Amino acid sequence: AIGGLIGSSIGSQLDEQERRQLAAMTRSTASTGRARHYRSKSGSISTRMSYEAGGCRTVEQEIIKNDGTRRTDSVQACRTAQGWKFG
Predict the structure, then answer these.
(1) Residue 21: which of 70, 49, 61, 57 has the closest Cα?
(2) Of 44, 51, 52, 67, which one is least surrounded by beta carbons within 10 A?
């Protein structure tokens, strides 16, 4: 279930622990609207809400590797009766 929470261009740059951390941060940012930041052994991971309309939010994801490589992606989350649905 992590796949829908992580943008495809970012996922390949992370190890399993970092993917799980990014997924948790993305869920948190979607539900609260608050930015999150995490420092991992290979760099930093950040999420922030960039857009909200009609019950949906776009969460921007960014990783910056220790070598300076930067990747960004976005994930859309929409509120449903069962909670947030990512796609």
Answers:
(1) 61
(2) 67
Pairing of strands 56-65, 70-80: antiparallel
- The DSSP secondary structure of 5-48, one letter per residue, reads GS-HHHHTTS-HHHHHHHHHHHHHHHHH---EEEEETTEEEEEE
| Tokens describing residue 43 | 């760099």
Q: Which helix (H) or strand (E) holds 62?
A: strand 56-65
pTM comes to 0.87
- Contact present, 49 and 29 (Cβ < 8 Å): yes
**Model pLDDT, residue 38:** 94
DSSP state of 76: E
